[in-house]
Amino acid sequence: MEAMPFYHRPRRPLRQTLQPRPVSDALDAADVSEVGYAVVDLETTGLSPAADSIIEIGLVQAGPDGAVERSWSTLVNPGVGVDVGPTHIHGLVAEDLVGAPALSDVADLLARDLAGRAVVAHNARFDVGFLTQALGGLDRLERGARVPRVCTMELARHFMTTPSRRLVTCCETAGVAIGRHHTALDDALASAGLLRHYLAVGRERGEEPVAWSRALAEAVAFNGWRWSEPAARAQESRLVPRRGDGVLRNRR
């Protein structure tokens, strides 16, 4: 495997100034018009990133307008003897994970497809917490790095009146289709639909910039991801989606 450099987003020329621009000002001035999103949903064996394991990944790459560009999903084998956790929630049993890749077998692909984008999730604290723990432990994310994120759950009541911030309720309120809840790819696609709904509501209100512009600016500057590009390409063939899911879906 070739050396895995930190991801560096191409830098735009800076205007000459007499004094260095403070970091906060640089973020405020960043051009976020071309920053896309990586919408992610994880199914796990429990609630603790330190003690529990990821057993399914759903990832949707979306453009700056929220339109889906590409998506993939895979089951993840957490290792021999690991309890799969609440089957009544995620619907998976140990036999479903036989033959699925370990997280280390898809870590380069995952890091590559998150890089350069704002990470979106419904309850981002949960999903990003697991990503930070798992990918940090595999040296695919700089230790201590704060991943730029957008939480569709936290933003829900800014963009609509909803009795609950649960994903299903938010989707019903916004008119967003949701497939099999607690299936990682379907939930990631639903969260991407909520993101598009928020963008549309924001445009109707004349809200410029978007409510999460700072997260997009942070994504421009973030260089904490590590991956091998040859490994990432090879790992695309290792995906084992849940029955009924496609492996890779390219929309554009």
TrEMBL record:
All residue ranges annotated as the Exonuclease domain in the record: 36-204
Domain of life: Bacteria
One Pfam family per UniProt: RNase_T
Keyword Hydrolase: yes
GO cellular component: cytosol
InterPro entries associated with the record: Ribonucl_H, RNaseH-like_sf, RNaseH_sf
UniProtKB keywords: Exonuclease, Hydrolase, Nuclease
GO molecular function, one term: nucleic acid binding
Full protein name: DNA polymerase-3 subunit epsilon
Organism: Actinomyces ruminicola
